[in-house]
Automatic annotation (TrEMBL):
<dbReference type="InterPro" id="IPR036374">
    <property type="entry name" value="OxRdtase_Mopterin-bd_sf"/>
</dbReference>
<dbReference type="Pfam" id="PF00174">
    <property type="entry name" value="Oxidored_molyb"/>
</dbReference>
<protein>
    <submittedName>
        <fullName>Molybdopterin-dependent oxidoreductase</fullName>
    </submittedName>
</protein>
<feature type="domain" description="Oxidoreductase molybdopterin-binding">
    <location>
        <begin position="20"/>
        <end position="125"/>
    </location>
</feature>
<dbReference type="InterPro" id="IPR000572">
    <property type="entry name" value="OxRdtase_Mopterin-bd_dom"/>
</dbReference>
Length: 150
């Protein structure tokens, strides 16, 4: 197990592991299972990435819905951190301006920890030419497990 990896904590139903924790300026740290995230609404994005071939279908939840569910206004920024300790600071305005998702599958295949899972931040770059800017690619955090609101 990776040092500092997200602990496997049972959900309210005691059946599913936590895949995302939101902390920082939240009323209380929030932990989400895939079922919790799915309950917020499932969204698909068909887009290309620098790391995959062709147009792919990503399934996940809108990032803004997750932040709102944590009880935090969409102002300021968020620090996204993966299980591999990669971090990126992302303006929360991205989540308002674009349908950014926290994806858990690509082309119907769930992500694993070996393949960008449990979650991958995916931007709808196919729908917005300005998102194809390579200077924004660092925001596509994979193995996402934490969002910290400073």
């Amino acid at each position: 197990m990776l040092a500092g990896a997200l602990p496997v904590v049972a959900s309210r139903a005691e059946t599913e592991p936590v895949v995302l924790e939101i902390n920082g300026r939240v009323p209380a740290s929030r932990r989400f299972t895939l079922a919790d995230l799915s309950a917020l609404g499932i969204t698909h994005i068909r887009t290309s990435t620098l790391w995959t071939d062709g147009i792919r279908d990503f399934e996940g939840v809108l990032a803004r819905k997750v932040i709102e569910a944590a009880g935090v206004p969409l102002t300021g920024k968020v620090v996204a951190r993966g299980l591999n300790d990669y971090t990126a600071t992302i303006p929360l305005s991205d989540f308002l301006d674009y349908d950014v998702i926290l994806a858990w599958s690509m082309d119907g295949v769930p992500f694993t920890r070996r393949d960008k899972g449990p979650l991958w931040i995916v931007y709808p770059r196919g729908a917005h030419a300005e998102l194809a800017d390579e200077r924004l690619e660092h925001r596509w955090v994979w193995q996402l497990a934490w969002l910290t609101l400073p």
